[in-house]
Write a structure and sequence with these properties.
The complex is a heterodimer of chains A (about 180) and B (about 600).
Chain A (H helix, E strand, L loop, with lengths): L17 E10 L4 H11 L6 E8 L4 E10 L1 H13 L3 E6 L6 E12 L3 H13 L3 E5 L3 E8 L1 H12 L5 E6 L3 E4 L1
Antiparallel strand pairs in A: 1-3, 1-4, 2-3, 5-7, 5-8, 5-9, 6-7
Chain B lengths: L5 E3 H11 L4 E4 L6 H8 L5 E4 L3 H15 L3 E5 L3 H4 L2 H9 L4 E7 L15 H5 L5 E4 L6 H13 L5 E7 H5 L1 E3 L10 H4 L8 H13 L3 E5 L1 H5 L2 H14 L3 E3 L14 E4 L6 H9 L2 E5 L5 H4 L10 E5 L14 E3 L3 H14 L10 H11 L15 H12 L4 E5 L3 H9 L8 E2 L10 H11 L4 E7 H6 L4 H6 L5 E6 L4 H10 L15 H7 L3 E5 L2 H13 L4 E6 L31 H6 L3
Parallel strand pairs in B: 2-3, 2-4, 4-5, 5-7, 6-7, 9-10, 9-12, 10-11, 12-13, 13-14, 15-16, 15-17, 17-18, 18-20, 19-20
Antiparallel strand pairs in B: 1-8
Classes of the chains: A alpha+beta (about 180), B alpha/beta (about 600).
């Protein structure tokens, strides 16, 4: 960040901003996602990625995983605000657990034009152990999972191949304390 | 097929309200709540107060709740009925006031069709309630209502809304009573039930070590109940520690007690703010380090060890980092501190903090609330002082609007008991005070209820004077009339070069005639000679009274910590022009 910018940037704003993955257990009821998203937008927090799924049909529970950016003080405040929401059972910063596992899934559709590109794609797919979902004449669809960082790298590598067309979808990270 | 154990949704609502011991409801009818109004027609346990606009209903419910310690209840129709209460719900959320709002909704099958008087009620009110519900199934209605009351009144209290579509009001189901409902604990957010012994011991040890301690007490103490005040008074008497309260903490500790430093913050007392700035131990009891209290954060009480008792986890370390905290209820915690001191025979080694009190008494000599009352024009401060002197022998409830008059009321009216002071602090809602007075008078029919008002705020919900007249509520509206939005004018004077842009209230009504046209009583004091007689006359009339008190038009509210300044950078009067360099920075703040 240049200090000569015409828009002065508060020095503290980006100081200790770091990525956190929050895991939130909630009653699966109407409006719960809106409550959480509204809390983030209303209080000026970031949502980098979001994942919501029912995890216990009998107890009617959903797990919501949120990737967010902020310094530690902000993350603690987000957790405290989340835990004030009536349908929220618990909110946990995975980074605060002694051990946790994180994963993300990504589907990538790649359109290529020639054999050389196909070979390079195949090569990266092999290195990253991505699974072929579908392969047609000049289109291949891969499924890759792992940490978000690993997927980022895979996508960066694909980027080095010129002339291909990539379309993708990512689940956002999900995680579990162990 | 008729089942005698089945009731309509409207009847279930009434049964649940009775079960919750609700005796008063503020409301305004409309298409989507007609079945409920029909049920109200056929019963006699519940007194319905017909307001003149829904905003009046929600502030009245707030006034009722604040003055009684019970949950305030209101009933409004769909669409505009409920959008009119959004301000009041936000107000109750900011100031932690327990209210339950019942709103009608268009029939289920019309939801989402942009039907007449339809709006996304739960969507609109989600960020301004503690929780809200749309009840789609009548069999869930009883449980929902009981949970709503529980949530509104538990932990840090707040507003809860229940939206009931019209068809659900007609549909039938069994009624489940309060005692047959088992609440799911995670939904109630009641705070910890166990006293943190470690916190208590640390606190007592720090009090022993401290040379310059202070209690900083907020509205949380009020919400914890009267017992919290008793325990606080005991603890202050035992330790001789000075105590300052926030706007909402007024009354938790007797304002005339020798240990009271009065209110702190932007318009707080000099000695209170200086003591906060210089203390070495701060004991925060149910306050939230609000920006109106802390001033500039990086200069806020730099040398103190901070203890924080607050039932709301999110209030801890939000604005100010504290050294020790507990989320257990204030009453329980203070009780434990007192009994820990007693059972361990701690006498603090005869500690009386004489140096600290010596310093505080030096600050007191500044007489920060001093004003010069001349022979003619009434000073607004004097009007409040006289009102206090002439009413303090009674059990008086004071509500306010928002602005200079509110701050003067906080400075010059002294409260000795909790729940006697009802004001809009967090949101700062002009138009709050008069409907709140209606609610307070409903809850306390034999007490004197006064709305200390400014003429601009009063005009915002003036229609509610008709409610007061209809229900023979002898509320007193004490207007400090300076023909300005005084606080706006004050800021324009201090920060915007006295360019009084749109803060003069032109074309004011004649408040005396206005009162008469509503069948209320109007009285007026134009000068100092008329003041006491006017106040006495106002008190003596057993009907709603509007007292139009003409005060100095140019008076400003001091002391003042300008925005962006710190506690020790107070302006004491208009002659005090210290720290001008903060003004440009302060201008961008609120």
């Amino acid at each position: 960040m240049s200090s000569t910018s015409v828009y002065p940037t508060p020095i503290n704003a980006f100081k200790q901003s770091k990525r956190s993955v929050l895991s939130v257990i909630v009653d699966n009821e109407p409006g719960i996602l809106a409550r959480i998203v509204g809390l983030f937008s209303g209080r000026g927090y970031n949502i980098e990625a979001l994942n919501v799924t029912v995890v216990d049909v009998k107890k009617n529970l959903s797990r919501i995983t949120i990737e967010t950016l902020g310094e530690e003080k902000v993350i603690s405040q987000i957790i405290a605000q989340l835990e004030k929401l009536v349908p929220v059972h618990s909110a946990t910063n995975l980074a605060n657990l002694s051990e946790s596992y994180e994963a993300e899934i990504c589907l990538v559709k790649i359109e290529f034009e020639n054999e050389e590109q196909d070979q390079k794609i195949l090569n990266f797919a092999d290195i990253y152990r991505s699974r072929t979902v579908q392969k047609r004449q000049n289109i291949v669809v891969y499924e890759i999972s792992g940490t978000s960082e690993r997927i980022n790298k895979f996508l960066d590598d694909l980027d080095t191949i010129g002339g291909i067309k990539v379309e993708l979808v990512r689940s956002g990270p999900i995680g579990l304390g162990i | 097929m008729k089942d005698e154990n089945e009731f309509t949704g409207a009847d279930i609502l009434l049964k649940a309200l009775k079960d919750q011991e609700v005796d008063t409801i503020f409301g305004y009818p409309g298409g989507a709540v007609l079945p409920i109004y029909d049920a109200i027609f056929g019963q006699n346990f519940l007194k319905h107060v017909l307001v003149r606009q829904e905003a009046g209903a929600v502030h009245a419910a707030e006034g009722y709740a604040r003055s009684s310690g019970k949950v305030g209840v209101l009933l409004v129709t769909s669409g505009p009925g409920v959008t009119n209460v959004v301000t009041g719900l936000t107000d109750a959320l900011m100031d932690s006031i327990p209210i339950v709002c019942i709103s009608g909704q268009v029939p289920s099958h019309l939801i989402g069709t942009d039907a007449f008087q339809e709006c996304d009620t739960t969507g609109i009110t989600r960020p301004c309630t503690k929780h809200n519900y749309l009840v789609k199934d009548v069999s869930k209605l009883s449980e929902t209502i009981h949970e709503a009351f529980k949530i509104a009144s538990s932990g840090r209290p707040g507003p809860v809304l229940i939206d009931i579509p019209k068809d659900v009001q007609f549909a039938k189901s069994k009624y489940i009573s309060k005692k047959d409902i088992s609440f799911r604990e995670h939904r109630i957010k009641a705070g910890s039930k166990n006293v943190d012994k470690n916190f208590v011991e640390e606190l007592v040890n720090h009090i022993k070590k401290s040379e310059k301690p202070i209690f900083y007490v907020g509205g949380g103490c009020l919400n914890s109940g009267h017992q919290a005040s008793h325990e606080l008074i005991k603890l202050v008497n035992k330790t001789n520690i000075p105590i300052t309260t926030t706007l909402h903490g007024l009354g938790c500790f007797p304002g005339e007690d020798k240990n009271s430093l009065g209110m702190l913050g932007m318009h707080g007392n000099y000695e209170a703010n200086l003591a906060m700035n210089k203390c070495d131990l701060m004991i925060n009891v149910g306050a939230r380090f609000d920006d109106r209290v802390t001033g500039r954060l990086d200069a806020f009480s730099p040398d103190s060890v901070k203890f924080h008792i607050d039932i709301d986890q999110s209030s801890i370390n939000k604005n100010v980092k504290v050294n020790f905290h507990t989320n257990t209820d204030i009453t329980l915690t203070l009780k434990e501190i007192n009994s820990f001191i007693d059972s361990n025979n701690i006498d603090f080694g005869g500690k009386d903090y004489s140096n600290w009190w010596g310093q505080i008494n030096e600050w007191r000599k500044k007489e920060c609330l001093h004003y010069e009352q001349g022979d003619e024009v009434i000073k607004p401060q004097h009007a409040i002082s006289r009102l206090y002197e002439l009413t303090k022998q009674r059990d008086t409830f004071v509500t306010t609007e928002v602005g200079q008059h509110q701050m003067w009321a906080a400075q010059y009216y002294k409260f000795s008991k909790p729940n006697r002071w009802i004001t809009s602090g967090g949101l700062g809602t002009m138009g709050f005070g008069m409907p709140a007075a209606v609610g307070a008078q409903m809850a306390n029919p034999d007490s004197l209820v006064i709305d200390i008002a400014g003429e601009a705020s009063f005009l915002m919900n003036i229609q509610e004077i008709a409610t007061a007249v209809q229900y023979k509520l002898p509320i007193k509206i004490f207007i400090l009339n300076n023909e300005y939005m005084g606080m706006v004018r004050q800021w324009q004077e201090l920060l915007h070069g006295s360019r009084y842009s749109e803060s003069y209230v032109d074309a004011l009504p004649d408040f005396k005639k206005l009162a008469e046209s509503f069948n209320a009583v109007g009285v007026r004091a134009k000068n100092i000679a008329e003041l006491d007689d006017t106040i006495n006359e106002m008190i003596s009339i057993d009907r709603p009274v509007i007292a139009d008190i003409w005060v100095d038009k140019k008076e400003n509210c001091f002391p003042m910590i300008p925005s962006g300044a710190a506690h020790h950078e107070m302006l004491l009067s208009k002659y005090d022009k210290e720290n001008p360099e903060n003004q440009e920075k302060g201008k961008v703040l609120v």
